[in-house]
Design goal:
The chain is an alpha+beta fold. It has helices at 2-15, 25-29, 47-60, 71-79, 94-103, 132-136, 144-160, and strands at 16-17, 20-21, 33-34, 38-43, 64-70, 86-92, 113-119, 125-130. It is 46% helix and 24% strand.
């Protein structure tokens, strides 16, 4: 029963926004990495190759990378701790950001869209994307439904191109 509840929560939290289907459900099911707040996939490429390809695909969808955090490097530098390859890219599509902030001025607290590239425990490379549907579900603004769908669709296309 607990497993069923988990999958129901994931399904409702990640693919529906106020009862409306937000992303292509079939494609969403093909992603092997899902949480209540992010979706992604394991890719058959090195961390470096995945980073290059993610940046390329983000650009095709109109996203630029505003921030970049090399977690492995920062942990070594600040904590003298070793960590796996783990890169956080803060991606922003200026036209979508303008549209969103024009509708909901405080939305900036949820920007940019984070894309994470990391090495899994099994040595494979994972790419995860913040689920805009989950993030924007915190906002009680019906105008954000279509916006969240647009962002989710763009991020889906980035992942499926990898």
């Amino acid at each position: 029963m607990e497993q069923l509840h988990k999958w129901t929560r994931l399904l409702l939290g990640s693919t529906f926004f106020k009862g409306k289907l937000s992303i292509n459900f079939e494609r969403w099911l093909k992603m092997d990495l899902r949480t209540a707040y992010a979706f992604g996939k394991t890719v058959d490429m090195t961390h470096v190759e995945a980073e290059r390809k993610v940046r390329e695909e983000l650009a095709k969808e109109g996203f630029g990378v505003l921030t970049e955090i090399d977690v492995k490097k920062k942990f070594a530098e600040k904590l003298q701790k070793e960590f796996r390859e783990y890169l956080i890219l803060g991606a922003c599509n200026p036209s979508l950001a303008y549209e969103a902030l024009s509708r909901e001025i405080d939305l900036g607290a949820l920007l940019p869209c984070n894309v994470v590239i990391y090495t899994r425990d099994d040595g494979k490379t994972a790419v995860m994307v913040m689920d805009p549907i989950a993030a924007l579900s915190m906002i009680d603004n019906p105008e954000m439904v279509d916006f969240a769908k647009k962002v989710a669709e763009k991020m889906e296309r980035v992942l499926f191109a990898l």
